[in-house]
Amino acid sequence: MARKHSKHGYRDDWQDESEEEAPPPVPCWLCGRPTGSTIVWHHPVPKSRGGRDVVPMHSICQQTLIVNFTNSELQRFGMDVEGLLADPAVRKFVDWVANKDPDFTATIAKKQR
Question: What gap in Å lies between CA 74 and CA 84, rounded to an integer?
Answer without folding.
Answer: 9
